Amino acid sequence: xxxxRTRIAGVIGAPVSHSLxxxxxxxWIAAAGLDAAYVPFPARADFSGSxxxxxxxxxxxxxxxxxxxxxxxxxxxxxxxxxxxxxxxxNLLIFSNGKIxxxxxxxxxxxxxxxxxGQSFKGKSVLVLGAxxxxxxxxxxxxxxxxxxxxxxNRTWSRADDLAAVFDAISVNWAERQDAAEAADIVINATSLxxxxxxxxxxxxxxxxxGMVVFDTVYTPIRRPFMETARxxxxxxxxxxSMLIGQARPSxxxxxxxxxxxxxxxxxxxRKALAHDHL
Length: 279
Prior knowledge:
Elements (H helix, E strand, L loop, with lengths): L6 E7 L7 H12 L3 E7 L6 H8 L5 E4 L4 H6 L3 E2 L1 H6 L4 E5 L2 E5 L2 H11 L8 E5 L3 H12 L4 E6 L2 H10 L3 E4 L3 H6 L3 E4 L23 E4 L8 H8 L3 E3 L1 H17 L9 H13 L1
Parallel strand pairs: 1-2, 1-3, 4-6, 7-8, 7-10, 8-9, 10-11, 11-12
Antiparallel strand pairs: 3-5, 5-6
Helix pairs in contact: 1-10, 5-6, 5-10
């Protein structure tokens, strides 16, 4: 039961109803026996820096940040980690002593997901689809992981150009993303396409080389065209659940100042929840 001593954190986004973070974090909290809670904060799309500042003064321990507020979170922080500095995006805010500290654990999440699948960026040609906060984390992870080549494609080409300049990458016209995908070793969907269960970046994976890694940063709903078509083409498909768990671990430890309880199978918990929602 929540009381005056309960340590409270949460996740903010627009929308946030799809997020599995409350289920994951509260399950970890219960397993660790903490007097704590993790709650969703649905916000309007025009949520501003002043609103963020007000939340930082509310007694919350901090917030995870999801679409579309990751760049807003980075801009309004008093302290920024190296990951935030290089990406211009934050998915974790720590509130302490009247200050907002911004971190980017999405980079950790992407590297965790690849490693768990027995893959890495080292020496690989990478295509990132998107130019928002998640795409920035994907580019940073690719560079940190020693990718040999990095290309970025976005529906608004100028945004891809801007991001390419930051990460010494190649900007690809959205209309030419198929050719870029066929030349890549790893393709990452860092757009919101797929969250409705219907839309997709529309890559024809049957034309892509065997052994390609297809990484979808989206994790809900459980069935999405981007992942379904990659699996049908017998490619290595990595979904966003592994990334979610990988970024959530350092978030939990920062927000609750406690280690993640290893007794709980986070992947099984989340996949069961997604399968139930699909019924």
